[in-house]
Design the sequence.
């Protein structure tokens, strides 16, 4: 099953437990440094992890963020393209675990481990 979410600009989902988000760093996304504010990496990592999980949810299930751990190693500048790729590592009955990597070209910007709690009528 291939998911498509055209209302999320730059977001695509791949079959079975993967997603890819890409965005261009704009001037309103910068710190005074001027570098990409890390909050954008946190938010995009959480969103990409949820989209990756969507392909494994039934029609009456959802998930909420239980834990989010992001390690930022580098930053991006205005005009850079940031790619965020997420993959479901394990989907259990009550929890799901996703790994996320943000990069700018060959440079790794951040890694994240996201845990989601499963929601649904039987939970």
Sequence:
């Amino acid at each position: 099953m291939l998911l498509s979410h055209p209302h999320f600009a730059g977001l695509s989902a791949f079959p079975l437990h993967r997603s890819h988000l890409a965005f261009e760093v704009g001037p309103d996304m910068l710190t005074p440094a001027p570098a990409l504010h890390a909050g954008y990496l946190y938010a995009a990592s959480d969103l990409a992890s949820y989209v990756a999980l969507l392909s494994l949810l039934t029609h009456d299930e959802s998930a909420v963020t239980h834990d989010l751990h992001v390690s930022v190693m580098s930053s991006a500048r205005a005009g850079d393209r940031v790619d965020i790729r997420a993959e479901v590592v394990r989907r259990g009955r009550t929890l799901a675990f996703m790994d996320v990597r943000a990069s700018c070209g060959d440079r790794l910007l951040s890694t994240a481990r996201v845990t989601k709690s499963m929601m649904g009528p039987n939970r």
Remarks:
- The longest strand covers residues 107-119.
- The domain at 11-119 is CATH 3.10.129.10 (Thiol Ester Dehydrase; Chain A).
- Confidence is low (pLDDT under 50) at residues 1-9.
- The chain has one helix and six strands.
